[in-house]
Amino acid sequence: MTRRPPVAAACLAALAAAAGCTHRAAVPAPAPASLAAALRGAFLVGAAVNEGVFSGRDTAGAALVAAQFNSVTPENALKWESLHPGRGRYDFAAADRYVAFGERHGMFVVGHTLVWHNQTPSWVFEDTTGHPVSRDTLVARLRDHILTVVGRYRGRVAGWDVVNEAVADDGSLRRTPWLSIVGEDYPVLAFRFAHEADPAAQLYYNDYSLENAPKRAGAIALVRRLLAAGVPVAGVGLQEHDRLDWPAAADVDTTIAAFAALGVKVMVTELDVDVLPRAVRQTGADVTLAAAARPELNPWPAALPDSVQQQLARRYAELFGVFLRHRGQVSRVTFWGVTDRDSWKNDWPVRGRTNYPLLFDREGRPKPAFDAVIAAADAARPGF
Ligand code: G3I
User: Fold this and answer.
1) Is the CB of 287 under 6 A from ligand 1?
2) DSSP 350
3) Residues near 59 by Cβ (< 8 Å), separated by ≥ 6?
């Protein structure tokens, strides 16, 4: 096994180097432990980044991303409401900064997301009197949006989450304005438009809770329909908004194998592990779910107890064990955020909690879970 320097020291060195720090230490800085280096040859490792990171305002966060990851996904900046807030009105300022950040650091740049039922302004589905538009009008708006956005970043954004969360828990197509106005072929149209705008871009279907059998079956049927229609689906994104006790590793394994059997790449696109008590029955990431704050739902506002910290590390080791076993099929693993401070899990499904779902703590320091991922990679090498 490769000997590595203590991770905390290595990361501080990486942060200093990335921030352009020229301070000369008496002892030469050890080679940094990085997720990207540890997993090179297995799959890409990415993070969802927010405006603070890609604008450089969060200098420590930007340095951490540059040091640790080789792929980025925009947490919100490329969603419809951010890019195209009004009819005929596009705003690419933040998105341009995001793409430039990824390019500057030589990263695999992901676009997220073209068609979703959330964070899409209501004007998209309505005429000027507030009534639903016709199918033709909505298809024309969809085409304009995709051609404009994908076209702008042609050759620069390497892969797009084209359709996001189109399948309901029972496996049927989710009831959304896309479905009710356009009909069942809206995913096919979206993929066709994206391919027209950038024939070289990888195009993905992305969803959560695909370990639940009915939903997985629905997503498999959808991907089969897309492939049968001649649509170039390059991959399927398993979001993996996980918990300490869900999903079972065996179900993650089954899910990766099931999508890989369709002949598409499999990506883990939004990984995090919620350590807090369950506030809603459902698993996954339905952003419309909400629960009232209660002290017992936020048990660790100051610090995570060591026992839970270790549980989180074991959980990450378990998950990466599965991903690494499927390394020929899994092409990327992306975390949904960089540090615990920035995670959406602090506000969903209960606002204002203190959650600990990622590998870096609120100060950007690597947690035991980080060491567990590096150790899992070391254990799987030299297989890759
Ligand atoms: O932009 C407004 C800002 O103007 C306002 O001051 C602030 C006050 O709350 O809200 C800001 O909007 C927030 C937005 O993120 C941008 O920060 C919304 O309230 C908040 O709901 C929104 O949450 C995002 C969520 O998607 C919305 O659907 C999360 O950051 C983002 O992590 C999350 O990401 C999704 C993936 O795209 C798809 N899969 C599930 C995943 C987690 O929900």
Assistant:
1) yes
2) S
3) 19
Please tell me the distance from the alpha carbon of residue 352 to that of residue 136, in angstroms, as a whole number: 42
* Alpha carbon distance 106, 104 (integer Å): 6
What DSSP state is assigned to residue 181?
A: I
Residue nearest to atom 42 of ligand 1 (CA): 285
DSSP 291: -
The Å distance, Cα 76 to ligand 1 centre, comes to: 7
Classify residue 364 as left (phi > 0), alpha (psi -120 to 50) or beta. left
* C-beta of 119 in contact with ligand 1 (< 6 A): yes
Find out whether the beta carbon of 207 lies less than 6 Å from any atom of ligand 1. Answer: no
User: pTM, whole model, 2 decimals?
Assistant: 0.92
Cα(158)–Cα(92) distance, integer angstroms: 18
Q: Write out the chain's pLDDT in tens, 384 residues.
A: 333 443 444 444 444 444 444 444 456 555 459 999 999 999 999 999 999 999 999 999 999 999 999 999 999 999 999 999 999 999 999 999 999 999 999 999 999 999 999 999 999 999 999 999 999 999 999 999 999 999 999 999 999 999 999 999 999 999 999 999 999 999 999 999 999 999 999 999 999 999 999 999 999 999 999 999 999 999 999 999 999 999 999 999 999 999 999 999 999 999 999 999 999 988 888 988 999 989 999 999 999 999 999 999 999 999 999 999 999 999 999 999 999 999 999 999 999 999 999 999 999 999 999 999 999 999 999 888
Which residue among 210, 344, 347, 355 is best mutated to probe the pocket of ligand 1, counting the most ligand atoms within 8 A of its Cβ? 344
If phi > 0 it is left, if psi is from -120 to 50 it is alpha, else beta; for residue 23 that is beta
